[in-house]
Amino acid sequence: MGGSAKPHGRLWTWLDERVGLAELEKLVKKKEVPVHRHTVWYYLGGMTLFLFMIQVATGILLLFYYRPSAEEAYESVQFLMAEVEFGWLIRSIHSWASNLMIFTLFIHLFSVLLLKAYRPPREVTWLSGIGLLGVGMGFGFTGYLLPWNELAYFATKVGTEITGVVPLVGPFLGRLLRGGDEVTGATLTRFYGIHVAVLPLLTTLILGLHLFLVQKHGMSVPPGVERAGGARRTMHFLPNFLLRDLVGWLSALAILAALAAYYPTELGQKADPFAPAPIGIKPEWYFMFMFKTLKYLPSYILGIEGEIVGVVGFGMGGLVLLLIPFLDRRTARGEPSRLFTWIGIAIILYMIALTYLGYTEVATQ
Amino acid sequence: MRGLVALAWLALVGIAALPAPAAAQQQRPESCAACHLETGDERLANPVKQFGEDIHSAKGFGCVACHGGDAREAGMEAMDPAKGYIGKPERRQVLQVCGRCHSDARFMKQYNPALRVDQVTEYATSVHGRRLREFGDPKVATCVNCHPAHSIKPPSDPRSSVHPLKVADTCGRCHGDPKYMEAYKIPTDQLAKYRQSVHWRLMSVKGDLSAPTCNDCHGNHGAAPPGISWVGNVCGQCHTVQAEFFGKSPHAKVFAQMGVPGCATCHSNHEIKEATDAMLGLADQAVCAGCHAAADKGGKAAADMRALIDSLGGEYDKARAILLQAERAGMEVSQAQFDLNGAKDALVKARAAVHAFAVAAVKKETEPGLTISAKAYARGVRALEELQFRRKGLAVSLVIILAVIAGIVVKIRQLDRKEQRTPSP
Amino acid sequence: MAEETLDREPTRRGFINWFLGTSAVAFLLSVFYPVGRYLIPPPVAESTAGTVTLPLKAEDVKPNTGQIFKFGNRPAILVRTTAGELRAFSAVCTHLNCTVQYRPDLGHIWCACHNGHFDLNGKNIAGPPPRPLDPYVVNVRGRQIVVSKSA
Ligand code: HEM
Ligand code: FES
């Protein structure tokens, strides 16, 4: 079917002359998605994108009532939940979707990792992806503090303390993040700025690059499927793939609505910096595996403080993850690379195991 | 030997005195201390050692202030009775020694204008004082038994024997000792009982130093058991509202005629437990049942008052529970919870009004409380209804979403079928 | 057979399109309805963080009276002195947390629980309370009474 031959309305022609819709149409029409037994994983990125959009929308709505100061933050959220119609819904969806987004983000990452989609020429797509992971976790970490309730306050205290452990720059970073020596109203203002201005800006840039590259390279076919040979099947992105995407998104929305109605986000007690820390403070679940690892480490390893070893270890781990496309030479050459498959599986198992332990072990301190 | 010590002392004093002006020496008569420390006899040395921390020492008083004598003398002459030396004051003398200053308003004013000066007068009214005066009883307490001579500290000092937390121990040293108290034929279980009381728990656990200890009811210098007729006044110091109700109640007159104390008849004295609703009415633990039966007028009133209090308590709990349930479900009900405090206040007031021993007085408090509870309960119900509404809203939107999904799925099928028929290039 | 499918196809497709369109519109409504309601300002326009505007008019508070109001999650007391001055304090007794009240006959604040007395500066003057009541700042803005935590 020749794209240009299709009749369009007057408005379309008018716009086309000024904006260049025809080229866009050609691009979209050309876009094909490979069909094979791993196609499901192609939906995860889109799902993450959808959830991110929900975050943007609900986040903007929350801004209408939220007040970023230690004196008013908690009260303004309480007001939102009590007085504003559907305030509970908007807030609950924002908080549930953030969790879901991080979850789909992780799955997206691991599917890309296991299907080796990072191999040339998609190294930069991978790099930008890791950037998005960092940004996503940053959103979670900074957003958690904003209601200024007890749990968030102490979790943030612990979280920022860990930053302080980083050798050399740690104490400085800790101060920079907290806006002082302690978690105070200054920290709240800072986190607010990061959450609603810095991170969205970064996300827009990195996500733009990410999506541009995905569009440029098209979807990768996993090496296993490529090697198996056989007839290549594809499906049109528009409308076939997008309609399927839509089904996923709507389902996600339904799940979000149900979660918000049955498990509205709690507010808890207002943070009191002078109160003793409540027992069993827990970070958000996606930080749990790191939190738990640091707890398990002995206080000294080879004469170095255990926490330092842990934090540096995670730093190195992150770096290795970032550089995987460049480390995995076999995949780059088109050969099977068992080692990296196992590395991926090991990371997944490690994270699941420690998260599990983090939630089942009784808090004693 | 004596001469030698005196000589050595003279030398010491001489050296010490050289740079010091004469006035200072008079203020700090060092000679008593020097010998008392030197003898090596603990009994003689201890008073000196302790005295450093004594409030009198801090205010600049020395040994001579109480014991007389002349500290400027280096030898035994310092303790010449001709110079007013009295040695260890004997029992009756103690009062004169302390009273010389402490009963002199003009003198005390120089040190602490707020301090009372009637301790000795009060003491005379106490059982301790009377026994000392009338029988010369050698076992009763005088000033120094509660304010240990040589280490006296103001009551605000936590180390003081008369700090609120220590008073019970101080009195209990004698009154809790059955052997010591044997001759007097009075109970010695007050300390043990007091330790069980709500007052001591407040004092020791919550650190509420305003909670009463022995002296708050018995007086301190004028220590005596409160007479039956004035127990109520003592308790009424803090429990004003109850005391006022009681004063106007039929019990006030009847108890007086019967010769039983007001508050203590139902609440006991030293081991006052936290008052509960169970004390009211005619059931098992109810104190009213001691005199009243279901048939008499008082018994009926007791049962009625209990019913009123129980109904308010029940309604309050019900409202609280539903608000809590709503809160747990994520609803914001803090205003309703706040307003419900009014019912809690009403309950407290109703419990106090019980001491009027009149159904009407209790009813006056429970009725507004019931109204408040009912309102709060209704708001809880509304919050839960709102929750139901949310769920209905959810159901509606889920149906809509499912419809869209179904539509899309059908559309996808259609597309696929079409593509199968016309294979794309 | 072939004719029949040809015949039925358009109406079926039409129905599906209609169904999809209607449910999509319903869906959009179900999204925009809560959002619209969310954006409508609620009746109480502001959260009561460090300040609360009392639901009373200044002239309705008579001299030598006191009134309990909600400040945050705790009770507070507004007093108009006999001289006509407005003052506000935390109404939580510093002894065992009973709610205090104004006693017109005494002309000061009183806690019924254990006969605690506070003067009109909030200072504990008699009875068990160990500390003064926390004072708040009262401002009258037109006919409104605005109470705030002192800076
Ligand atoms: C906010 C977070 C993210 C969003 C919104 C997002 C979005 C997307 C989208 C829409 C796609 C195309 C569909 C797909 O393959 O699933 C995609 C592909 C991709 N993403 Fe992400 N992504 C995010 C995070 C990440 C992360 C954390 C990584 C890994 C480090 C990553 C690596 C990739 C790669 C390598 C591809 C290409 C996959 C292929 O060609 O098969 N992305 N992303
Ligand atoms: S609670 Fe107010 S005086 Fe005891």
Outline the structure in words:
The complex is a heterotrimer of chains A (365), B (425) and C (151). Chain A contains 15 helices and four strands. Chain A has helices at 10-19, 21-30, 42-63, 73-82, 87-114, 123-145, 150-163, 170-178, 185-217, 223-228, 237-262, 288-296, 306-327, 329-332, 338-360; strands at 32-35, 233-236, 300-301, 304-305. A two-stranded antiparallel ribbon of chain A has the order 1-2. A two-stranded antiparallel ribbon of chain A has the order 3-4. In chain A, helix 6 (123-145) runs antiparallel to helix 13 (306-327). Chain B contains 23 helices and no strands. Residues 3-29 of chain B have low confidence and may be disordered. Chain C is of the alpha+beta class and 151 residues long. Chain C folds into two domains: 2-39; 51-149, 3-layer Sandwich (Rieske Iron-sulfur Protein). Chain C has one helix at 2-39, and strands spanning 51-57, 65-71, 74-80, 86-90, 101-103, 108-111, 116-118, 124-126, 135-141, 144-149. Chain C has a six-stranded antiparallel beta sheet, with no helix packed on it. Chain C has a four-stranded antiparallel beta sheet with strand order 5-6-7-8, with no helix packed on it. Chain C is elongated. At the B-C interface, helix 22 and helix 23 of B face helix 1 of C. The complex binds protoporphyrin IX containing FE and FE2/S2 (inorganic) cluster (FES). The site of protoporphyrin IX containing FE (HEM) has 26 residues of chain A, from helix 3, helix 5, helix 6 and helix 9.
Task: Label this structure with key terms.
heterotrimer; A: mainly alpha; two-stranded antiparallel ribbon; disordered N terminus; B: mainly alpha; 0% strand; binds protoporphyrin IX containing FE; binds FE2/S2 (inorganic) cluster
**Poorly predicted residue ranges of chain C:** none
The helix fraction of chain B, in percent, is 55-70%
| Tally of separate helices of chain B | 23
- Lateral strand order in the biggest sheet of chain C: 1-10-9-4-3-2
Structural class of chain C: alpha+beta
Q: How far is it from the N-terminal to the C-terminal residue of chain B, by CA?
A: 132 Å
What's the number of domains of chain C?
Answer: 2
E-strand count of chain B = 0
Small molecules (ligands, ions, cofactors) in the structure:
protoporphyrin IX containing FE, FE2/S2 (inorganic) cluster
What is the number of E strands of chain C? 10
3D shape of chain C: elongated
Q: Give the overall pLDDT of chain C as a whole number.
A: 85
SSE ordering of chain C: HEEEEEEEEEE
What is the arithmetic mean of pLDDT of chain B? 86
Point out poorly predicted stretches of chain B: 3-29
Largest interface: B-C, 29 and 24 residues
User: What is the fold named in CATH at topology level of the largest domain in chain C?
Assistant: Rieske Iron-sulfur Protein
